[in-house]
Amino acid sequence: MTAISFYHLERSSLEQVLPQLLEKTLYLDKRALVLSGSEERVEALNAHLWTYDQDSWLPHGSDKDGDPVDQPIWLSVDEDNLNNAEFLFLTDGAEARSIGQFERCFDIFDGTVEISLLAARERWKRYKDAEYELTYWQQSTVGKWEEK
Prior knowledge:
The chain is an alpha/beta fold. Helices cover 29% and strands 28% of the residues. The protein has helices spanning 14-27, 39-51, 114-129; strands at 3-9, 32-35, 60-61, 73-76, 87-90, 104-110, 133-141, 144-147. A hairpin with a 2-residue loop joins β7 (133-141) and β8.
């Protein structure tokens, strides 16, 4: 069954955390599907992943970049697993009905926004009721995470 990890952002932004998690994903030789709440957000993240660190490179793309099969990291608003990803990243409150087809799901939410926090709690409850394996990660300091 899919392992779902909740990442509670409090000290860092999605733009800071997502590249780190995607680097680890590629290190594990896994592919990623990153779901976002809007096309505009997908394109903003797509642009950010090209420029977030001058010493790093994350091969990725979106609908505007061509064939998803060629992309180890695919950014989209559509949950179809077009790049055969093993890992699913849910951002900006995005949800997927197909979580069960992935090895692992990362539910990354902004804990500084009350509505995001409440929505994450609802998703946690739903996933727990569905008997998914859940973990909760909270930032202890910038760049450091503690499992709670």
